[in-house]
């Protein structure tokens, strides 16, 4: 049975897609079977993983019943992908039936035994697409950067997450908050990190031990349609993401950089 992990924050530009792509590349490299699902109408994950989102079935077609979920799957050099494009933005108005919150979870039952991990990239908005992701997911990872607006995005997620846990998915786990574009030398970083710890406590989770630094390779990899693991396997960014994947999933990651990629010791969430 696949473990379903959603990467989420209603604030854009915090590294959701980059993180989702890195998980797909790292888990595939470690020998795991991975399905990536793009729920962002911008289609950035689809582009980053080299999937065709224009001349093929997309998640919009799955939601509308134009095809089955299996028919929408594309095999790429990275992993299997169900792409998205701008049509997906219409789902907020078009999906009006009873049980619309469960559409993705029900569709995933057809492939749950075919993969080890299913990674979901969510849109930067609180919409029916986001709720579908939370309802289908086992784990949530919330990336943020050291900015006040990024913190606000997490704070605004809280009510939605709690509502989904109450009504649609009581087993949903908030695995942790990921500090992205991390620079410990900046005063603002330390201040935001303290505030993020307080929000994590309110969410019943923690700040993940792994940190992702700013790295030019992370910006370059999507242009080549591959993850950071393939584009720059010896980079600091790849090593940091391998630590993160190991921390979240327990999957042992082969290290190709000079730094160790042993799993960071888990710190429990604050009580």
Describe what this molecule looks like in 3D.
This protein is an alpha/beta fold and 271 residues long. It has a single domain, classed as Rossmann fold (3-Layer(aba) Sandwich), CATH 3.40.50. The C terminus is likely disordered.
In short:
By secondary structure, the chain is of the alpha/beta class.
List keywords for this structure.
globular; about 270 residues; Rossmann fold; 11 helices; 8 strands; alpha/beta; disordered C terminus; 8-stranded mixed beta sheet; about 15% strand
Domain module count: 1
User: Helices and strands, in N-to-C order?
Assistant: EHEHHEEHHEHEHEHEHHH
Largest sheet strand order = 3-4-2-5-1-6-7-8
The CATH homologous superfamily is called P-loop containing nucleotide triphosphate hydrolases
Return the CATH architecture.
3-Layer(aba) Sandwich
* Uncertain ranges: 257-261, 265-271
**What integer is the average pLDDT?**
89
For the terminal residues, how far apart are their CA atoms? Answer: 31 Å
Could you tell me the CATH topology label. Answer: Rossmann fold
Helix content range: 25-40%
Q: What is the count of helical runs?
A: 11
- Our Rg estimate from Cα atoms comes to 17 Å
Beta-strand content estimate? 5-15%
